[in-house]
Amino acid sequence: MNTFYQKYQVWNPSIRWFHWINFVCVLLLFLLGMLMLYKKQLGITGVEAKIALKTLHVLIGYVFVSNILIRLFFSYSGDKYLSIKAFIPGKDYVADLNRYLQSVKEGKPQQYVGHNPLGRLAITVMYGLFLIIAVSGLIRAGTDIYYPPFGSFVSQYVAQEGGDSSSLIPYSSVGINDAKMTQLKEFKAPIGKIHIYSAFLLIFIVILHVFKVVHSEIKEKSGLISAMFSGAKILTQKPVDLDKN
């Protein structure tokens, strides 16, 4: 029996660039984060090494945050498959999910130009974690090594009265108001935990996401993997979301 194949253009260059830049940033940030968490066990000692690792982590974090902001900007470009509405579950989401799961159970999985309902849920959770990690990371960048956007305010807050806040060195007590530094540590400690736990949760979801993408590519002929390189999907049936607004 002949199979009908139809090509659908879905991901334009902006979303493909976002995807791969985001993938590289998340991987590098996680690896650097693990180095910082286990630096003593790895024999990495000294304040200079600690600052260097943190600085590199923050600089890559800026790329990560900028990439997210650009993605959000393009979500208002008018492209239906770039829109935030394309993946955030809406009022018909539960019904869509049930129909999709039923089609999978029956061995005739529905195909989508965009993300299927399970993929939409995964993407929504990941974007939520991206934002939590971005905000908490920027706060820790300011409270740890006095980097923008909050670093100037933090350094002025913890500096001794009449001192030069711009001369403060990260992890050094020289020129520091001890009482205010204690308050700062109490403030940033839970934010650091949120940042770390969110990162671990993100990595877990990313692993599940990759597994599901590969599985759907093999079992459902979803075309997701090729689309993230070429921007187009080649499907064997009419996509469920083709005529949706």
Q: In percent, how helical is the residue content?
A: 55-70%
Sum up the overall morphology in one term. Answer: elongated
Which blocks of ≥5 consecutive residues have pLDDT under 50? none
State the assembly state of the protein chains. single chain
Mean pLDDT: 90
Helix count equals: 7
Strands ordered across the widest β-sheet:
1-2
Helix/strand/pairing class, anyone? mainly alpha
Report the major sheet.
Answer: 2 strands, antiparallel
Observed structural traits:
two-stranded antiparallel ribbon; 2 strands; 245 residues; mainly alpha
Description:
The chain has seven helices and two strands, in the order βαααααααβ. With 245 residues, it is mainly alpha-helical. Helix 2 crosses helix 4, helix 4 packs parallel to helix 5 and helix 4 (117-145) packs antiparallel against helix 6 (178-219). The longest helix has 42 residues, at 178-219.
